[in-house]
Amino acid sequence: MDQDHRRALETLFARTSEPGAQARTVIGADEIARWPSDALQVLVEAGILKAWRPAATIICHGCEERCLRQVFILPTEAAEPERTGWTCDLFSDKGPFVCTTDALQRWSMSRNALAKFIGRLLGLEIKSSDREARRVRYDPIRIGCELRSLSVEFADSAVVLIGSSRIPLLDLLEWTEAGIAVDREALQVCINSSGANKSSNKSYQPSVAVRDDKKLSTEVRNRSLQREVDRLAKEHPRLSKEQLAAKAASSTVGKGMTASRIARVTRKPKKTRRKNFA
Q: The pTM is what?
């Protein structure tokens, strides 16, 4: 998943999981304008976002104050796009301001909608959830001969709980040409790791679980870092491993990591040589 698409999903998951967030989160046109061009359509088709009623106010960029102003619809000719306007009550020499009504468009997202989408991706039915859909439980997931309990928790971000392991939802998804999909390899890593915590001594189980969660998160994150380095190597084939690591450190995947650490946990893809045939 590239940085821009990852950032869009990261924003959505964080917004809907905030401690004070309501069951429904509203996203404005100004925020969506910063996303990749295909993101809105993919998220709407996935059922994650739905069209919401237009805004009645707009942030004015006429000066540095950035006031929130009430808007009014302007009369237009039949062939013209519908326009909206607003006035400034701070400066008499500014305004009125005009833009198309597209700037007022909004979309909504709910934890329930996201939970249902996750269920469809994994082919699982929702078993239960609390009143505000902060924690959603699904039927057990099976991959091969492994069977694990699975739930999603919305607390600061969307987190998947597989057996005894916790992993950010974002690390289990990938953005493909067909839309958002599950990274099956990362999911298999989580399922395999979730079965490793079988201490017979209950007093040690919590610390073992924490250690396993950190190990799992590191393993999945390193996989994401390697994909990012692979992508950068294709774009910049002349860069050294250290230079690629420096670029990866500035991406959303490498957030909080140094270039030297990324260089240690990743490898530079080997150049493919063209074979000469007689």
A: 0.64
